[in-house]
Amino acid sequence: MAGTEGTVALLEAAIARIAGELGATALPRPLSAYDDPLAELRGLRASLPPGGQVVCGTLNAATSDALVQLLRSDPAQPGSYDASAPQHLHGYATAYKLLLEAGFSGDIVETVSSPVDPALLEAATPLMEHLGVDTERAARHLGAEAYVLVADVVADVAADLAVPVAEQRPVTFVACVNDDLQLANNLLASSVLGPGSPHQLLTYRGMTSAAEGLNRGLHEAQHDLVVFIQQDIFIPSWWPARLQRQWELASADTPPSLAGPFGVRYREGGREHVGHAVDRDHLLRMERPLPAPVDGLDELVLIVPRDTELRVEPRVGWHLYGTDLALQVHRAGGWTAVLDLPCHHNSLYHDLDEGYHHSEAVLAGIWPAELPIVTNTSSITEDPRDRRVRDLEDFIQQRGEEFTAMVDSLGVAQGEIDRLNEHIGTLNEQIARVRERNQKLRKRRGD
Fold it and tell me: Rounded to two decimals, what is the model's pTM?
């Protein structure tokens, strides 16, 4: 079980080993063992040499054993029942959020694992599916006793941290909500949006599409920059200050019409991912320097000026509206930017569902002249109406070939029937002659 002396020893040994191999600074104990792990990380960041890295680790409080104990109404304790010290319960998402809040961009490089009972996974699968949890990822992390992470300091983050939250230039955040637990543990867990925040947060529930909530938020926004943000995003406290600096950098010549932390370039051929974000349980940090122009954006976070003429298209539904907005910008002669704004996208989902494919079809219908349209996750190569016509033509051709083959088969069968009928006729004639001869023989014997 997570927290045992054996797991702690393995974790601390892995931290020391990896730090030695990289020449990095180690935080020797698990993050969950410190009274204030955030303060420990901030202290390390302040003392790191330029280009320095930190190696840290955390125990996983969300193991299969912990799940069993929770369901038995006897949650696993980090210490003894009669003398437990102040502790923190961590999973991989907690570690990513702590690192971001401290000004780091980190990733898991090693996992201390133990086997998970297959029968438990099989029994838990319906529950995970009901909760919208990716079962493959959950199975991997249920067997993780601890994680080792390597982290770099976010470029020039000291300038962002130097701006107290109360003195940040206000920003409007707009989110559609259908899972209040996800909202509470991600977006609302961002301290910059907590009590005393200068920023405006607008949340909309019961929306029929992303457009309904986001367009309403744009209308009700009070501040110059409006951030369309998903409920499962965590942003560090310095993020709004960095947004203002990154927007100014991108606006040195012509301000962008649309921006976000992650996007794609494809008009020059291929697919190039651009940006900097933590997606679920891995870091996405691409090589292209930021800010950078792109052809499309992932809709995890989208930023527009309040006075924009852009509007989210209701027909697109809940997916790919970042792609649609970027296409609107391109048509209007503006440009779309990826800014260096790391955040944690703590999404439950992984597979592309029917809703996503519906959004692909709608985009193809709206933007036929722009095909192929390349996103971070898929390529839209044709209008679905053309595909339906082609499928119908293929169906007709296939059925025609089957009909022709059937007619040919019937012709062969009819020939065989005619041959059999002719043979039967011959046999009948032979039978008749035999009967006639037999009758004559009987008459002769009778005489």
Answer: 0.85
CA distance linking residue 190 with residue 338, whole number of Å: 22
CA distances to 192, 201, 408 from 197, in Å: 6, 9, 79
- Give the pLDDT score at 112: 97
pLDDT in tens, 286-316: 999 999 999 999 999 999 999 999 999 999 9
The alpha carbons of the chain give a radius of gyration, in whole angstroms, of 34
Specify whether the CB–CB gap between 302 and 228 falls below 8 A. Answer: yes
- One-letter amino acid at 170 equals P
What is the DSSP track for 3-52? T-HHHHHHHHHHHHHHHHHHTPEE--S-GGGSS-HHHHHHHHHHHPPTT-
Q: Sort strands 282-285 and 233-234 into parallel, antiparallel or unpaired.
A: unpaired
CA distance 215 to 351: 27
- Are residues 324 and 366 in contact, defined by beta-carbon separation less than 8 angstroms? yes
Q: Given CA atoms 160, 162, 165, 166 in this order, what sign does their dihedral have?
A: negative
Regions in the chain scoring below 70 on pLDDT: 1-3, 76-87, 384-385, 387-388, 446-447
Half-sphere exposure of 22 (CA within 13 A, CB side): 20
What's the Cα-to-Cα distance from 170 to each of 174, 222, 226, 240, 360, rounded to whole Å? 13, 9, 10, 8, 35
Element (H, E) at 336: strand 336-338
Widest CA span in the chain: 138
Report residue 394 as tokens. Answer: 């293929």
Half-sphere exposure of 26 (CA within 13 A, CB side): 18
Beta-carbon contacts of residue 159 (< 8 Å; ≥ 6 apart):
241, 245
Sign of CA dihedral 236, 277, 97, 149: negative
State the CB neighbour count (10 A cutoff) for residue 239: 25
Give the list of residues 6+ apart from residue 89 with CB closer than 8 angstroms, or none: 32, 61, 78
